[in-house]
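Input record (one chain):
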Amino acid sequence: MSTHGNAVDTARSPVRTAALVVSATFLLVGVAGFIPGLTTDYGDMTFAGHQSEAHLLGIFQVSILHNIVHLLFGAAGLAMARTASGARAFLIGGGAIYLVLWVYGLIVGEDSAANFVPLNGADDWLHLGLGLGMLALGLLLTRRTATRH
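The corresponding structure, as predicted from the sequence alone:
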């Protein structure tokens, strides 16, 4: 498709697609955390803190704040995925944030007042996977290939 002789690129770049998929996943997880049945012990969910006994899929400890953070993270990713540079920044920056959360979760005890999100062991290892995966997507999908002369 062209406009007045100038080519218009309508194709979505792989990094934008990856950022959209990751963002949509965060939105789905955020919503799922508010659905009884998908979230066990739903009635024991607190706004924040390690006292929340609700677990998404019976595994990942969640709270209202935890679910809201997922929703906000997903919305930010959708907004940033409008451009390849924004998508790259979301994936790399988000990956770095999740690696910091992984380390934080390992250092802070599950019953500590500092565990305000809340995080449990399953969350910690998921954060490692998310951090590494998001970093890999952001870096590998925007890698510049060297041209040979």
